[in-house]
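Incident log, structure service

09:12 report received: a user says their structure output differs between two submissions of the same chain.
09:20 pulled the input from the user's history:
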Amino acid sequence: MIKASGIKKSYGSGTGKNEVLRGIDLQIADGDFTVILGASGSGKSTFLNCLSGLERPDSGSIQYGAVDITALSDADLTKFRKDNIAFIFQQYYLLPNMTVEKNVRMGADLADNKGYGEIIKAVGLEDKMKKHPSELSGGEQQRVSVARALAKRPNVLFLDEPTGALDEQTGRQVLDYICKLHKEYGFTIVMVTHNVNIAEMADMVVKMNSGRIAEVYTNAARKTAYEIGW
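09:34 re-ran on a clean worker, output below:
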């Protein structure tokens, strides 16, 4: 269970102060797929960064079970992220001088995961292991970033607009791979997106507006990546 309580976050000071998060409370169950929706400037990416420990909130607490990550030292927070959390962003952040296998192995080594080849196979890149990022399509590069993240064997996977730079066909393919691996491995997913259709794939949907949660609802039945609109 991830529990956020009273999360506030501002940038700047004085007359230039910008309140981005204005006191957010939210609980995310273990193994759930949660989508956070909101217009640009609603605070959704900042909230994701606070939930994942990439940024510290100004006030409030974020608990993973009995662990309050907002109370951890910088060193302990870094170790917590290393041991428990993985990220997938809109940008692929692959190392261009490394092959697919070596890029994925970077994530695997953090968890001493010798079976990372199975993850590469699971995302359909078994025949591309020796290729470099420049030799891959955008969708293939995003699948490498998916494999690298999951090779860490995370308890929680955070995604920030993972299909934002992809065309419809490739976007659906990447989402389908993520959901298949989610079902197989049982990790928790928290995804920020502007695509309201992707919300139909989630267990829980959180709508944000002006730094606050405007609505939370659950889907009675989840759709697949090939059943939603685009």
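09:41 both user submissions now match this output. Likely a transient worker issue. Closing.
09:42 reviewer note: The beta strands are 2-11, 18-28, 33-37, 59-64, 67-68, 85-89, 156-160, 188-193, 204-209, 212-218. Residues 112 and 159 are 23 Å apart (CA to CA).
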